[in-house]
């Protein structure tokens, strides 16, 4: 190292006192890391700071060495001097282990406090506070209301927030910023230090952390610390053999083989995937290969997670398949390689994940992205290039979230017993996410809380006072993480909990006899205990199963990434149109992106086919609309949120024109619609050309009223306002009634704001719509379905879920449907109806009264349709029900019991039943496979149907 750099390194440590410098020598810290070199001087001077640096560059010591120094040099200590806040309990455990040595050497007491801390330990901390307390945002909320702990917190001089980027984009983070202001009321000014992975908006995150205070940003560039390779595996003879063992096709077997080879080539490999579903499916494949690879994600029990963490750390496992929770620095020992299976979707995510490798000072972090199809490859290439260039997405802070306002108003009342409304408003608006909160919004929230008896508003004195419900509400809502029902999964053979299942999965798929994957193993459901919220299972040996479904596991692809994919298409397309050979186009991409000839060539083949067909290729500035039958696809390279916004807008406006429901599926490059007959691409283009961009927000809010997503969010927000007691749930208070009850309240306003913030991009969509109408973005109609448009149907996003279910799963579906009930009603005499199990229906149902075979098969709850059929005087709505019944009767008359079976499936109406039957499956298993595929399709898209 040059002398100048050595001197600079020494200078950083000279800002610290003798005790800490002695500890550094004892610990073998002779030269600071770059973050330490640059950040220790301002931190030692007491500045607020955001330190941005890759994982493994000594960020924790960067923050804590000046903090330790300050505490060690202090003459008078009576309470907690420093708080170290992490977003995960598991990080608390790791951080305590990491800081203990320094505490022992410097004679400082370091302790941990979170939800699992025993009552005895909590009492001990209140009576004899540690010098440094490692905790979570939620535990800080509770501490601020404790009498003894408030005294201890009044001595806080430093707050360090680890992984601050993770909190900045969540409501947990917005809640924490107000807690910082509440802490300031106790402790006065204190130093705020944030530790962050690379983010695209450092100043925004720093303001989030510090509010109105001055701050310093110390940002260490990624430069040459990361090395990426994007690869699409070539199918080999080995994969053909492997496919039989894995019960999948050779293409998917090649993915598993490529990942297995990477794990074998390295000592310890993290294999990141984007969803828990994929983690489970990939884990099941490795289990069949007897590979020493574990599975780790948030729906596994704490015991199961710790077990695999320890096994990986000890070398018992060579690989760990994991999801985003492993991004946050949980200690699993040294990692020498990271595999990302499928595009990581975001630049920040790729940097954070690959940054887990090569923790030793000076090592380059190496990562391999294994891709599945053309979209996946182009997307991964764009993200890898952007990561190397440091083009990272900004943090999306929740500005003005009213349920957080409600929660923190109650927190302020808990702090003081009674508090001035004006002082509470001023405190809230000192926190960065709430600086623009209006007095009227604040007053509306207070009135809602008063109406829900969570506090009393003394208008005469302008005071907020405790009520009988304050205490119970506050401690039930320490966290802003939404309350989502989950079921504990218990292995009845070992009596251990193995994980959890989301309520939606249990409601939609889980029944006794069903098979699914969790922890990489196969389980059959024995029974479901609704009262206890438990699913009891037994382990089985089976080649496949329904992969568990979790809410919110989809990572949205941002617009800049999708636009770069569009730009790649725009570069390649014209060359193919001129007849350029694929090899020449390939070499141009290999020069620019970290990949190989085969990977690029395979991805370009899709564009080459489209150019040869003479159809326009959708790019960053060209939208191509195509359709056939009841399917219309809008090919648009705008990313998830903008495409979601366009999808909801178009489905609502087309539905309004036709009077029929429009279903949709969205990915970053296309929006696929299922439309009524006689609706085609031209109608979609007409809507895009005629809709005023200024009206998008209002149109979307109207459309949202029919969407389950708003009702689901409304229920969660209502719980945070105390408007919906937890025990009520959505089952006791339906979404439509909730919507009607809370319209024109801050609860409704916040639910709409959250859906717009989380799922949609209204302003950007309006801009793009204006560009379409001005001609800056081409809007063209393809004559027929195109290779690029069709590719969305076969996207590799769920590439590990087998196409065909195995015999035991099919048998379970058959048994369930045969035991389901249907209502048979005669459409000829209109007098006879009967509710019966499907298994009891004759091969050709007929009316016992008039012997007609014109018999409809209806859902068991369709009593209103039976009543409409028998009614002599029907209104318009009843007439629509009768027409639907006639469609069902026509199917039953033509196809007998097979039609009854199809109509009895979940979400399969007459149209889809006819489509299933029209396949003329001779094999009964294939017939039930088609039904299962349609049920899955319904479960994925039902929130977009009226």
From TrEMBL:
GO terms for molecular function: ATP binding; ATP hydrolysis activity; catalytic activity, acting on DNA; DNA binding; helicase activity. SUPFAM superfamilies: P-loop containing nucleoside triphosphate hydrolases (SSF52540). The keyword Nucleus does not apply. Belongs to the Lhr helicase family. Lhr-Core subfamily. Residues 254-403 form the Helicase C-terminal domain. One of its GO terms (biological process) is DNA repair. Residues 40-217 form the Helicase ATP-binding domain. The keyword Metal-binding does not apply. Gene3D superfamilies: P-loop containing nucleotide triphosphate hydrolases (3.40.50.300). It comes from Halogranum gelatinilyticum. This is ATP-dependent helicase Lhr and Lhr-like helicase. Keywords: ATP-binding, DNA damage, DNA repair, DNA-binding, Helicase, Hydrolase, Isomerase, Nucleotide-binding. Pfam families: DEAD, DEAD_assoc, Helicase_C, WHD_Lhr.
């Amino acid at each position: 190292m040059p002398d100048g750099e050595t001197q600079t390194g020494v200078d950083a440590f000279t800002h610290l006192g003798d005790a800490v410098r002695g500890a550094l020598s004892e610990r073998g810290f002779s030269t600071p890391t770059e973050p330490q070199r640059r950040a220790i001087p301002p931190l030692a001077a007491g500045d607020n700071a955001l330190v941005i640096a890759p994982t493994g560059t000594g960020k924790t010591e960067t923050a804590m060495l000046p903090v330790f120094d300050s505490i060690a040099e202090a003459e008078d200590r009576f309470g907690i001097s420093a708080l170290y806040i992490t977003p995960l309990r598991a990080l608390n455990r790791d951080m305590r282990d990491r800081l203990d040595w320094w505490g022992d050497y410097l004679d400082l007491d370091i302790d941990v406090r979170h939800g699992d801390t025993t009552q005895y330990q909590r009492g001990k901390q209140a009576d004899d506070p540690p010098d440094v307390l490692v905790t979570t945002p939620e535990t800080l909320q509770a501490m601020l209301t404790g009498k003894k702990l408030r005294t201890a917190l009044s001595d806080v001089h430093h707050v360090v927030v680890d992984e601050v980027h993770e909190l900045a984009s969540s409501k947990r983070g917005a809640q924490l910023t107000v807690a910082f202001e509440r802490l300031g009321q106790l402790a006065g000014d204190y130093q705020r230090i944030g530790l962050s992975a690379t983010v695209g908006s450092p100043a925004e995150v720093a303001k989030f952390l510090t509010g109105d205070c001055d701050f310093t940003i110390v940002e260490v560039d990624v430069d040459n610390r990361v090395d990426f390779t994007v690869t699409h595996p070539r199918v080999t003879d080995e994969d053909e053999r492997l496919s039989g063992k894995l019960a999948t096709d050779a293409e998917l077997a090649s993915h598993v083989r490529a990942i297995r080879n990477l794990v074998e080539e390295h000592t310890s490999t993290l294999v990141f995937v984007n969803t828990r579903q994929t983690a489970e499916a990939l884990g099941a494949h490795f289990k069949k290969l007897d590979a020493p690879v574990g599975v780790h994600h948030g729906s596994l029990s704490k015991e199961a997670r710790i077990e695999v963490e320890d096994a990986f750390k000890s070398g018992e496992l060579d690989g760990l398949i994991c999801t985003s929770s492993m991004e946050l620095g949980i200690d699993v020992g040294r990692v020498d390689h990271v595999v990302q299976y499928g595009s990581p979707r975001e630049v920040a995510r790729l940097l954070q994940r690959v940054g887990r490798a090569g923790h030793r000072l000076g090592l380059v972090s190496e990562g391999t992205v294994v891709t599945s199809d053309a979209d996946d490859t182009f997307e991964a290439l764009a993200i890898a290039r952007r990561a190397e260039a440091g083009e990272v997405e900004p943090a999306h802070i929740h500005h003005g979230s009213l349920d957080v306002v409600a929660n923190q108003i109650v927190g302020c009342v808990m702090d003081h017993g009674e508090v001035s409304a004006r002082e509470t408003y001023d405190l809230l608006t000192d926190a960065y996410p709430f600086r623009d909160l209006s007095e009227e919004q604040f007053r509306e929230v207070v009135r809602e809380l008063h109406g829900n008896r969570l506090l009393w508003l003394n208008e005469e004195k302008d005071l907020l006072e405790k009520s009988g419900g304050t205490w119970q509400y506050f401690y039930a809502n320490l966290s802003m993480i939404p309350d989502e029902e989950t079921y504990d999964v218990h292995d009845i053979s070992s009596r251990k909990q193995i994980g959890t299942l989301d309520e939606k999965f249990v409601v939609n798929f889980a029944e006794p006899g069903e098979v699914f994957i969790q922890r990489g193993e196969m389980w059959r459901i024995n029974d479901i205990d609704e009262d206890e919220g438990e699913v009891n299972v037994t382990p089985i040996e089976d080649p496949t199963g329904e992969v568990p479904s979790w809410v919110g596991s989809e990572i949205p692809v941002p617009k800049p990434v999708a636009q770069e994919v569009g730009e790649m298409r725009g570069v390649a397309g014209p060359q193919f149109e001129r007849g350029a050979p694929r090899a020449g186009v390939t070499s141009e991409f290999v020069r620019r992106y970290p990949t190989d000839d085969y990977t690029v060539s395979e991805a370009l083949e899709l564009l080459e086919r489209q150019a040869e067909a003479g159809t326009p290729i959708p790019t960053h500035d060209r939208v191509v609309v195509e359709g056939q039958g009841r399917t219309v696809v809008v090919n648009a390279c705008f990313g998830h949120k903008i495409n979601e916004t366009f999808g909801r807008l178009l489905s609502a406006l087309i539905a309004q024109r036709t009077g029929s429901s429009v279903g949709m599926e969205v990915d970053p490059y296309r929006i696929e619609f299922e439309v009524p007959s006689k609706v085609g691409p031209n109608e979609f283009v007409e809507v895009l050309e005629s809709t005023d961009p200024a009206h998008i927000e209002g149109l979307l809010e109207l459309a949202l009223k029919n969407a389950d997503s708003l009702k689901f969010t409304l229920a969660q927000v209502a719980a945070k306002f105390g408007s919906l007691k937890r025990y009520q749930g959505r089952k006791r208070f339906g979404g439509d009634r909730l919507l009607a009850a809370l319209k024109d309240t801050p609860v409704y306003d916040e639910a709409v704001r959250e859906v717009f913030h989380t799922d949609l991009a209204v302003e950007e969509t309006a801009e793009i719509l204006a560009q379409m109408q001005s001609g800056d973005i081409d809007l063209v109609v393809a004559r027929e379905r195109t290779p690029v448009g069709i590719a969305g149907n076969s996207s590799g996003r769920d590439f590990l879920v087998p196409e065909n279910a195995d015999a035991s799963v099919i048998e379970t579906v058959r048994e369930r449907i045969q035991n389901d009930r249907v209502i048979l009603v005669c459409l000829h005499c209109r007098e006879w109806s009967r509710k019966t199990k499907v298994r009891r229906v004759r091969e050709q149902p007929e009316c016992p009264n008039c012997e007609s075979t014109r018999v409809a098969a209806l859902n068991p709850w369709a009593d209103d349709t039976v009543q409409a059929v028998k009614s002599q005087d029907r209104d318009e709505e009843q007439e629509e029900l009768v027409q639907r019944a006639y469609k069902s009767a026509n199917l039953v008359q033509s196809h007998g019991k097979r039609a009854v079976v199809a109509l009895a499936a979940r979400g399969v109406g007459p149209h889809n039943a006819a489509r299933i039957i029209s396949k003329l499956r001779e094999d009964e298993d294939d017939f039930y496979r088609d039904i299962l595929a349609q049920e899955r399709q319904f479960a994925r898209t039902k929130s977009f149907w009226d």
